[in-house]
Amino acid sequence: xxxxxxxxxxxxxxxxxxxxxxxxxxxxxxxxxxxxxxxxxxxxxxxxxxxxxxxxxxxxxxxxxxxxxxxxxxxxxxxxxxxxxxxxxxxxxxxxxxxxxxxxxxxxxxxxxxxxxxxxxxxxxxxxxxxxxxxxxxxxxxxxxxxxxxxxxxxxxxxxxxxxxxxxxxxxxxxxxxxxxxx
Length: 183
Fold this sequence. Notes:
The protein is of the alpha+beta class. It has one domain (10-173): 3-Layer(bab) Sandwich (minor pseudopilin epsh fold), CATH 3.55.40.10. It has 1 helix and 9 strands. The chain has one helix at residues 9-60; strands at residues 64-68, 72-79, 84-87, 96-97, 102-108, 135-137, 146-152, 155-164, 171-173. Strands 1, 2, 3, 4 and 6 form a 5-stranded antiparallel sheet that branches. Strands 5-7-8-9 form a 4-stranded antiparallel sheet, with helices on one face. It is elongated and about 105 Å long. The model is unreliable at 117-128 (pLDDT under 50).
C-alpha cells in the first residue's frame, strides 16, 4: 500500500502563524510610515503658512500674529486704528486644528516686546486678550524668536523643528537635520 503524502495539521498551523506574524509586522511598519508622512505634511504646511504670514506682513506693511492653542492655531492681524489684534479674514489664514496625535512644543522667548491690544488694561472681559498672539511677524521683516517642535504623540524622539532667530526668517528642519546649536 502506498503512503499518502501531504501536510499535517501542525505544519499548516505553523505556516499560518508565521504568515500572520509577518502580516502584523508589515501593517505596523506601514502604519508608522503613514503617521510619519502625515507629520511631515502637517509640519510643512505650518511652516509654509508662517513663511507666507511673514511675507504678507512685509508686503502689506501690517503686523501678523500667530496664536498657538492646545487644539488649533490661527493667524491674526494688528489693526493700527483700533490698536488691537483681529482675526485674519483671508481664507488662507483661517484657524487650523492640530491633530490629536501631534505634539507641538513651543519654545518662545517671553521677554520680547509684543504689540498689546488697546483694551488690555480694561476689565470688561471683551475677549481682546484672547487674540494676543504668541508669535508676531512684524512689517519690518522681524519675527518673534521661537522654536516649535512637532512630533508624534507615540514617538517624541522624531521631531520636526520650525524656528526663527528673529531676523533671518522662518526655517524648517526635518528630523536628523536639526541645527547644531540650540538656543
